[in-house]
Amino acid sequence: MSAHxxxxxxxxxxxxxxxxxxxAAAARTCRGCELYRDAExxxxxxGPRAAPMxxxxxxxxxxxxxxxxxxxxxxxxxxxxxxxxxxxxREHVYLTNVxxxxxxxRAQGSARRIHKAPSRTEVVACRPWLFAELESVAPxxxxxxxxxxxxxxxxxxxxITEHRGQVLRAPEAGFQVVATPHPSSVLRGPADRRESAFxxxxxxxxxxxxxxxxxxx
Length: 217
Ligand code: URA
Ligand code: SF4
Known about the structure:
Elements: H1 20-27, E1 53-57, H2 62-67, H3 74-85, E2 93-97, E3 104-106, E4 113-115, H4 120-137, E5 141-145, H5 147-154, H6 160-163, E6 168-169, E7 176-180, H7 183-188, H8 194-210
Parallel strand pairs: 1-2, 1-5, 5-7
Antiparallel strand pairs: 3-4, 6-7
């Protein structure tokens, strides 16, 4: 193949429409990077069309890849608990990921698929879907879950550890932004830090919810 194929991104697959159903349908056949090849399906965002709060994760995991829905595995369960603790109803928020296909490796001789972080190239290739979702949903507040989401929107130099829980604004965006640790990092982190990491996540979700002009109902 010629070299120019490496410049293909999700942008080449975006429809004119910003209707969520039209975007999700178009994303199903996206080949904006290599990740569609090994994954089961595109996992597009899910939630109300005009949700005032939009949450962005990294990429679907094993369970999400099978189900075709974001945040339905272990990280999703932890996020559900954190949202409940922050008085946020999952039904009222839009949940999505920066990268829409599951990236994984297999341990030798094992069927188990192990999550692999997306590269910056894959993030940049897939990000047009997220930008389109942001245009379509037009949330008041965006919560960035983890470094991949935060860097995708706030720049590659952004450090969660320095800025978590602060109320920020993305360049030229009409919404406020709060970055917080990813639920998977709470799950995978050291056991003695799990409670405080969970408390950070709940506090930051609470900060984000507190910015909503009309609450979440
Ligand atoms: N982790 C994510 O970042 N997103 C999901 O949808 C599931 C796990
Ligand atoms: Fe397209 Fe994103 Fe999937 Fe790559 S990861 S093929 S850019 S939807």
